[in-house]
Write a structure and sequence with these properties.
407 residues, Na+/H+ antiporter like fold
Length: 407
């Protein structure tokens, strides 16, 4: 059998597995499809089976994630996103940095990893990524403002995390110490990198999306609109990431937001735009379906068992650190911002921080010579599994307990 036929057979195996899961949960509205997919993928790995499809950092960042992010941003209500923008910026710009510093320190003290390695681990594992949040919130009828806040944070913070990760990794490879990063100059440089690389990527994407939106309004051919959206989704990523050296994911976020609905609301989209939007929704569903099954099957079960103590400790610390940053920041924001966030919403903000696709991609991108690489990768995969399976499956319970789930 040729390699292409083998690849196609493996892909059909993944989709067949996903179909079986979908049929199993289709009448269970309070069960997160993505969580069950990952759990089934882990079961496949435990049984010693394989789909012969390997996850790589390039596959996630360059092929899968842009499709998910673009579809998610084009369907967001931009006006509501702007209304909650202050809190989203605080959680992304301040909360993530504080969480990385806190988890890095805790990991060094409790596990004994070198501080810079622990900070790199924290930058890898902490970003809450859009793939998990968008897929699960699409399954559940969640309070709209809460969904917008969590989705907005998830769409932005992975870009910030990637910049911080890259800066810390470069410092490690250059033989620099944490002390050199903790100086006023080092902190200013880090903030500048986030602003330039992250903000610049978003701006490049926004300009691309705005220009494409203007062109799209002049098109009534469905295939032309579809081709334009594909070019914008992947072109904005490549332009920002590989041509200009900026954040490609934030480039896709900017492109999706400005192309989707900056002045025109979704109910005024043309027939061609509506059809293309449905195609993107279908494409995103297929991509996330394949992705979550592969995440489950990629878990090295033997290593997972050997390092179960690290995985469980990290899974607990990640939630505790998120709580330690979200509650104080939201409480402080409530005193300044006009729209207050209730305590119930804060509970869901903490529990809704799912750490899957972006952390796995960053872990896979670690250089082969990086110290404790195997342990870090196993731990990140473990946290991802615990995050999406446990937190995802319990999300309906949490929403019901705090009274924020509709239906």
């Amino acid at each position: 059998m040729s390699e292409t036929a083998t690849l196609l057979l493996s892909l059909l195996g993944v989709l067949g597995t996903a179909l079986a899961v979908r049929l199993l949960v289709r009448n269970r509205d309070r069960v997160a499809f993505a969580s069950v997919l990952v759990a089934v993928g882990v079961a496949v790995s435990v049984l010693g089976l394989s789909f012969d499809l390997a996850l790589t950092a390039d596959l996630i960042f360059m092929v899968l994630l842009p499709a998910i992010v673009f579809q998610g941003t084009t369907t967001l209500d931009v006006r509501r996103l702007v209304d909650n923008g202050g809190l989203i910026v605080v959680l992304t710009g301040v909360g993530l940095s504080l969480a990385i510093a806190l988890l890095g320190a805790v990991w060094t003290v409790t596990v004994g990893f070198p501080l810079l390695v622990s900070l790199i681990f924290a930058a890898i594992v902490l970003p809450t990524d859009p793939a998990a949040v968008l897929s699960i919130f699409d399954e559940l009828d969640v309070d709209e403002r809460l969904a917008i806040t969590i989705e907005g944070e998830s769409l932005l913070n992975d870009g910030v995390a990637i910049v911080i990760f890259s800066t810390l990794l470069a410092a490690h490879e250059a033989g620099r110490s944490v002390d050199s990063l903790a100086t006023a100059g080092g902190l200013v440089g880090l903030v500048g990198d986030v602003a330039i690389v992250g903000g610049g990527g978003f701006l490049v994407g926004a300009v691309t999306g705005y220009a494409a939106h203007g062109l799209m309004r002049r098109l009534d051919d469905e295939m032309s609109v579809l081709l334009l959206t594909v070019l914008v989704a992947y072109g904005s990523f490549l332009l920002a990431e590989h041509v200009l050296g900026l954040s490609g994911i934030l480039g896709v976020v900017g492109a999706g937001l400005l192309m989707g609905a900056h002045e025109e609301t979704h109910h005024r989209m043309s027939s061609a735009e509506n059809h293309v939007q449905q195609l993107w929704t279908t494409a995103s569903f297929l991509v996330t379906t394949v992705l979550y099954v592969l995440i489950g099957t990629a878990v090295p079960i033997g290593a997972f068992v050997r390092h179960a103590d690290l995985v469980l400790a990290a899974a607990v610390f990640v939630v505790v650190v998120r709580a330690a940053t979200v509650y104080p920041l939201v409480t402080a924001s409530n005193r300044v911002l006009e729209r207050r966030v209730s305590t119930a919403c804060q509970h869901v903000l903490v529990w809704g921080g799912l750490h899957t696709v972006v952390p796995i991609a960053l872990a896979l991108s670690l250089p082969a010579s990086f110290p404790l690489r195997a342990e870090l990768q196993v731990t990140v995969f473990g946290v991802a599994i615990v995050s999406i399976v446990v937190q995802g499956l319990l999300m309906p319970v949490v929403l019901s307990q705090v009274g924020l789930g509709n239906g």
